[in-house]
Amino acid sequence: MILLAVLFLCFISSYSASVKGHTTGLSLNNDRLYKLTYSTEVLLDRGKGKLQDNVGYRISSNVDVALLWRNPDGDDDQLIQITMKDVNVENVNQQRGEKSIFKGKSPPKIIGKENLEALQRPMLLHLIHGKVKEFYSYQNEPVAIENIKRGLASLFQTQLSSGTTSEVDISGNCKVTYQAHQDKVIKIKALDSCKIERSGFTTPNQVLGVSSKATSVTTYKIEDSFVIAVLAEEIHAFGLNFLRTITGKIVSKQKLELKTTEAGPRLMSGKQVTAIIKAVDSKYTAISIVGQIFQSQCKGCPSLLEHWQSIRKYLQPDNLSKAEAVRNFLAFVQHLRTAKKEEILQILKSENKEVLPQLVDAVTSAQTSDSLEAILDFLDFKSDSSVILQERFLYACGFASHPNEELLRALISKFKGSIGSSDIRETVMIIIGALVRKLCQNEGCKLKAVVEAKKLILGGLEKAEKKEDTTMYLLALKNALLPEGIPLLLKYAEAGEGHISHLATTTLQRYDLPFITEEVKKTLNRIYHQNHKVHEKTVRTTAAAIILNNNPSYMEVKNILLSIGELPQEMNKYMLSIVQDILRFEMPASKIVRRVLKEMVAHNYDRFSRSGSSSAYTGYIERSPHSVSTYSLDILYSGSGILRRSNLNVFQYIGKAGLHGSQVVIEAQGLEALIAATPDEGEENLDSYAGMSAILFDVQLRPVTFFNGYSDLMSKMLSASGDPITVVKGLILIIDHSQELQLQSGLKANIEVQGGLAIDISGAMEFSLWYRESKTRVKNRVTVVITSDITVDSSFVKAGLETSTETEAGLEFISTVQFSQYPFLVCMQMDKDEAPFRQFEKKYERLSTGRGYVSQRRKESLLSGCEFPLHQENSDMCKVVFAPQPDSTSSGWF
């Protein structure tokens, strides 16, 4: 009795987990012709789901399916013939009316006579246990047409029992899950698991990256082991992480319905399927059911030279602050990616010096083998006559969105060769460090070129004899952030002198929390508390900042707080501002700081009433549930009122991902002799120096020098014009996402998201003995354009959705100090200019013959300017006000 009960339960379980009547795949009846209707449609929109906002098209047909052969040794081994008939193409959006691109056109005119004939030729599908064994079609059919046939054929691959397995269909080799019910089967395909060769790349940093989600669900209604209806829906949605206005969605649907059955061809006899196929038509050939790559020919598109000649006026130096410059830069980069080396070289060699820097930016940003070979052939690193072009090339390499080993190998080769300019040699090594980090982030740490570059950086730093070489390798390590370089950094931070020690500590400051170990913090504590030797206050304050930002212990915080009051006056004020900023901004260390402050010995009036002008402040640029953008400014003065360091940072956060958007540091030292002041402890023997260093999008750039040495200082003061010195200027590709999708309907989709900016960061330091005043100025001018383009192509009709956002902004920081008396007077201001914010949307449908429909929208707002608070007495967040402008919409033929 128990045995019977167990068998009964097993039977019921098997029944509920499979479709009634069959347990493997679809099965056709002998000598019957199944007549079905089929349609596949695609829609593009921005995810709003309104039909009137969509563009797309539908391909429909009748379908005849017949069983040609069944293996006499097994019912689940079948050869079926599938034939598409009466193919038609139409709009999904029926509201298009008279504007429909298909109106008045017959299928042969839309699809093309040869394409239509190929599409309606029968195909054969060999199924074993419901899975595709082979797909047969005719040779030399257009790839795009074969893909549509593959999309239909793939619908016949299914299993009638629940379970998870791997299947090969038009989407590639994919993991699929079946959920079987009494009269239907649901098939869920994990599209992110599909293995298929397709081109594509993305920006590794999550803040600048693109998030995407893809789903595929197919529902089979089954009767008598065959489908009476199939409904498949595939959705691809994407969005730019830090800007929610850049979004898009592709919805692809397939529908197959059984209309009737009638007498069909008689079953062919035989044991070998190959013989049966040869008997049907010897011209049939087995081809992969996986979708194949095809490229639609662009009719009437300009050549690379013609494109360049049409846009070069926008890339003149005087026009770089305009959005048109960046927009055309992005479009030209896309064109360069399809160009050959000879075409690129021809343009480079024929251009004048005014536009060449912008052309070098574009060619380098293309990041193809041809563009790299062209630019390396064009630039002569042995000469110092083209330093500007060489620098623009190197910085574009540093900002590369998806660098490869070939690029790194080329820069290593240049570094080992002859370089005419010492500044360029230093920049090459700095950018090598940036490429090492990006390749390691993309799981490329074991590449031969990366291993060689690591040895070059670490070996060079360990063996460096000249101060210039030590600085160069430290800057490279500041970009590479190699964990194995930390012991060397600790050595230079603690034992190094002046500028070297400070550079080593600021390099340590860029490492993530897991690398700031107890051993590292022991060294930093010795530096801050000067246990072994006297250090400059710039080094000490940086060491303290690293400790406080990386899970400080109770005693570490207590010892730092107890030191306040025993430090030089301006350093006292600076450290006090750091602690107050941690508390006010609720930084991670705020909890432990509050615990320590409960002790009276650490928290008392004597310690917290210290006067001075140095400060530290962190504030919000933008704050939302989705993302946070912050700025921080800390300024440290010497006891005589002369600037020692100003540090302005901008960070962008999305979730736990962060991006160091920019950092501009102005440093000065050894200027006390000019006003007969006494240097602070540990700074008595410093040479006169002032310079500026910048980090842009996580890439450390080569620092620039205002003056170096007393004689240089005096000559600069006598001839000073007050003009700023440029740290970085150029066109930069910061967002770069390209994705080619094989839709299961057979259509090809592409998603392209690019973001570019024209940037000019400059700084100046003015010093007046007559007025006993110093002034520092940092100016950022940025024009940003972000574009996205989604297309779905069948080779004979194409639908697309283009969106773009652009703005032109400016941010200026000015600090003025009057040191004619003490306490000296300090005025600081950071202003953001009024900025336009424009959004564009373009939707289109286009036939390969050229006829098309387009709809365009434009929206413009004005972002008000504002002044950011820079000290705790004025901590209201700078509020950006949008002043909307009238929208504009247009649609029609083109």
TrEMBL record:
A Pfam family recorded for this sequence: Vitellogenin_N
UniProt-listed GO biological process terms: cholesterol homeostasis; lipoprotein metabolic process
Subcellular location, principal: endoplasmic reticulum
Residue ranges constituting the Vitellogenin domain according to the UniProt record: 28-659
InterPro entries in UniProt: Lipid_transp_b-sht_shell, Lipovitellin_superhlx_dom, MTP_lip-bd, MTTP, Vitellinogen_b-sht_N, Vitellogenin_N
The keyword Protease belongs to this UniProt entry's keyword annotation: no
Catalytic activity: a 1,2-diacyl-sn-glycero-3-phosphocholine(in) = a 1,2-diacyl-sn-glycero-3-phosphocholine(out); a 1,2-diacyl-sn-glycero-3-phosphoethanolamine(in) = a 1,2-diacyl-sn-glycero-3-phosphoethanolamine(out); a triacyl-sn-glycerol(in) = a triacyl-sn-glycerol(out); a cholesterol ester(in) = a cholesterol ester(out)
Record GO terms (molecular function): cholesterol transfer activity; lipid binding; phosphatidylethanolamine transfer activity; triglyceride transfer activity
Leader peptide range in chain numbering: 1-17
GO cellular component terms, semicolon-separated: basolateral plasma membrane; endoplasmic reticulum; Golgi apparatus
Source organism, top-level taxon: Eukaryota
Keywords, in A-Z order: Disulfide bond, Endoplasmic reticulum, Lipid transport, Signal, Transport
Gene3D superfamilies (alphabetical): Lipovitellin, beta-sheet shell regions, chain A, Vitellinogen, superhelical
Compartment list: Endoplasmic reticulum
Function: Catalyzes the transport of triglyceride, cholesteryl ester, and phospholipid between phospholipid surfaces. Required for the assembly and secretion of plasma lipoproteins that contain apolipoprotein B. May be involved in regulating cholesteryl ester biosynthesis in cells that produce lipoproteins.
Cross-referenced PANTHER family: MICROSOMAL TRIGLYCERIDE TRANSFER PROTEIN LARGE SUBUNIT (PTHR13024:SF1), MICROSOMAL TRIGLYCERIDE TRANSFER PROTEIN, LARGE SUBUNIT (PTHR13024)
Protein name: Microsomal triglyceride transfer protein large subunit
